[in-house]
Structure formats: C-alpha cells, structure tokens
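Hi,

Apologies if this is the wrong queue. I'm a grad student, and the batch job for Response regulator transcription factor from Tahibacter amnicola produced an output file that my downstream script rejects. I'm not sure whether the problem is my script or the file. Here is the sequence I used:
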Amino acid sequence: MIRVLIADDHTLVRESLASAIDASPGCHIVAQCADGISAIEQAHALRPDLAIVDISMPRLSGMEVVRRLHAELPRTRVLVLTMHEEEEYVVPMVRAGASGYLVKHAAVAELLEAIRAIAAGGVYFGSYASKALAEHVRQPDADSDPYGTLSPREREVFHLIVDGLTTKEIARRLDISTKTAENHRLRILAKLDVRNAAELVRYAARKRLID
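Support response: The file is valid. Your script probably expects a header line. Output copied below for reference.
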C-alpha cells in the first residue's frame, strides 16, 4: 500500500486528488494539509511513502517543504504538482530533492502512474518538466542557487526576515541571542549578495520562495 500525503492550499483541488488517489488500488491518503508547516509536521508524524506538494502554499513555500522533506525524511519521496511548468520552477525543485514534477492539467491516470513510479524508487517528470530539464542541460550556466548554500538555521532565519520580523523578534522566536540572530542575518545577506531586508524580499519573490 502506497501511503500518500497531499499538501495543497486549495480545498477543492486537495479533496479531488484525495478522492481519486484513495479510489485507486494500492494507494491510501494518510493526510491532507493546507499549508507548508502542517505538511512538515504531518509528514514527521505519519511518515508517508510519498508527498504530493504544491509550490505556492501559505506559512512555508513548497520549495522549502521539498527541501526539508528530502533532508529530514529521505524515505518520503516528493512529487511536485503545480500550475507552473517553466524551467525556473522545475530545476530548483529537482535540486531541492523532488523525485517528480507534474502540472495540474495532467490526467488522473498520469498522476497515478507518477505516484507508482516514484513510490517504487524511480522518478517521474511530465512532458513539460522533461522539456524544461532538457533545456537546462543544454544551458547549464543559466542560473545558480545561492539559497541552497544556506544552512537549515539560516533558511529558517531567511523566511522569518521575509515575513517581516525584526532581529529581536527572530531571536525571541528561535530562542537565541540577538547577537546570534544578527550574525545569521549578516551571513544570509552576504551569501545571497543582497544589502538589506527589502532586497532579500525581492530575492525571495524572484526565486518563488514566497507567494
């Protein structure tokens, strides 16, 4: 039995997917999550075989959900299911650890094929994602991923800055000293080559790390 978690903030989409997957032999939905933080928490609690993750979600972006699931729960494989089919979305998701990528206008039969392929240890990329990956291979110097150089704690601080928290508020939220929070902030700015919080927010928006 393939145990599946769905993370998508659109209720109708999420429940439709759950009905279709639960009706398929050999598949079972163990959780439905409407935001990224809930997806991480439920994945840790339930240890699903596969997580279906949207890119745009409240509280924590799909990109960070994929990255954290890949690092913290490597046995839970991830299929990204999204409206976005462009290379700028596909490549970072693969780098973050996604084993599959489909757009939401794919047929249910293809979704089930992807679930079974990934749960069996393979990968599955729909035609649009395959084309984007092929294009990236032809132009390997098209981009870089400095966000990927941040440590887990720095990524945590990154998203709190993007959410508008001050250094003191970040220190209180993470139970660390203000000096430590400030050091994290300065290293993040240096690694991403931005000068202040406003440029950091623009960077996050450009890289689709926030909605």
